Amino acid sequence: MTEIDKTKPVLVTGATGYVAGWLVKKLLDEGITVHAAVRNPDNKEKIRHLDEIAKDSKGSINYFKADLLEDGSYAEAMKGCELVYHTASPFTSKFKNPQKDLIDPAVKGTENVLEQANKTESVKRVVVTSSCAAIYTDAIDCKKAPNGVLTEDVWNTTASIHHQPYSYSKVLAEKKAWEINEQQDQWDLVTINPSLVLGPALNAQSITSESYNILKQIGDGTLKQGVPNVGIGLVDVRDVADAHYQAGFKPKASGRYITSAHNTNFLELANNLQPKFGDDYPIPNKALPKWLLMLIGPLMSKTTTRKFLKNNLNIPFKADNSKIKNELGIQFRPMQETMEDSFEVLIKAGMV
Which segments constitute the NAD-dependent epimerase/dehydratase domain (predicted)? Predict the structure, then answer.
């Protein structure tokens, strides 16, 4: 049972990020002082959306320069905080060197933030943004899970630096967090493990996130012949932010939380856009046959290997989200609301 004093500042690492933006908004709306750790506080363009949110809220925001890979970089930002949100981590499929571009920032960043928590006497709880990728790599892993369903007890054992290195980085980073947590008794650790995150972005830069890449292909004609029928989980960014908030302030919050609203697939995502946008945009309405994808998939994208297709095509994604509903009281938005709100963002940005 950890009680967090709302009059004390709260640290958010990677504060300009997609999920972090909505979390910062929630904290500010609750009248909390946010210590926003960002790479370059002098880049006014990157923090403008947070300044605007702060202007209309009861809370206040202070910026601190911090670098994931620099020891002691979070010392000043963490001073006086009882609650730390570590959201900063790379999410991209565009990398040259998986060790340098994905694994080091994820693992060393987590290590730096949590080691700083050990040195900061005020810290009582750390909430780390992990991922369902730390639980599974491919949809086929759901089949192999106990009773065919992913739960918080399951860990990803199939990712590697050669197969789905992004997932591998999330496993290593979360394991590092639990390892550091177990070696001390000053603060408790909670992890939020979202599936694919969509929903409106608070800043234009977030539209370049990997989540939006998938949505763009559904709406810009790239996939108009059909989508790969890949099983995935989906959750709204606003619900992920709420999950972080509750994980920070609910005294009984503990352990890992699968944060996934819908067990779904790419075709169902597209189908949810049809009623509102189907007449005006080339949104696919069928799945491509497996044989065709096995043939052309590897030509279309470096990440779409035959192994990926074999492990994900026509295989349902199944995750159990009962823990987060029961313990944190999270009520997830309907899929159609998430999909329509996300697509509106792409239209406004002129990306479809």
Answer: 10-252
